[in-house]
Amino acid sequence: MNQNKIKKAVFPVAGMGTRFLPATKANPKEMLPVVDKPLIQYAVEEAIDAGITELIFVTSMSKRPIEDHFDKNYELEAKLAERGKDEVLAMVRDIIPKGVSCVYVRQPEALGLGHAVLCASSVVNYEPFVVLLADELVERVSCNPLSEMIKLYNKHNASVLACLDVAKEEVSKYGILGVEGDFLSSAKVSTMIEKPSMSQAPSTLAAVGRYVLSPKVFDWLKDIKPGAGGEIQLTDALVKLIPEEGLYAYKLEEKRHDCGSKLGYLKATVEHGIKHPELGERFKNYLKKYVNTELS
Questions:
Q1: Does domain 8-260 have CATH number 3.90.550.10?
Q2: Three-state SS sequence of 138-157
């Protein structure tokens, strides 16, 4: 960790969250709670745990609640202090620890993930950086995958993306990789196709929302034309890095929840509810009774 020179994380949070309407009409998708924390906070905690000290949120005009969440709330803090709710007060104050800063950049149009990342270029200032998609909720069991990806970047001085195997019927939803080598050492990406049909896909390995990127990606993003879905795809810029600097894949062993889908979000909520230190046992007992009743 002491050798980690990567200090900046980009969170693309400007999307409209149409899959969760009407819940996301006035509330950003990234602020949907999984038990008692919003999705974006899980991603922020993951980044901070990996040594990140500058959080860059690429937002739109409807995302003010994200800024408010990570800002101080003097009125709330005063009331909690007045009522002696010290534990809750500490929780609110420590959402962003000392030494970590937040920067907000507007994405004027929803032109895709690649465009969102490009919007952060002036703040990243041509340094290596990480990108986290908040609706990909990654469990931290044995390690922080982002920390391991940063180590891999430092080893090869080349961009790294997280991946995992998906079902064949889901291949068309992701950027799909072809890789060379062993994941136990270093798996090098040989090709990458955004949202291919199964017949076009080089594998079932999908890129899943965690990237450690060379600033060289900005040079390519500036020139990328709209691709799949009429959007500027990050995948198209990453492909350009393969012959120039190399691109590596890190296979996630930890569980990941696709909270961009309703079913994935519900699964994450249930599993985090079962593990919750305060509610876990009671919630688990409730689920047992409920399932036994419904299935009997």
A1: yes
A2: ECCCCCCHHHHHHHHHHHHC
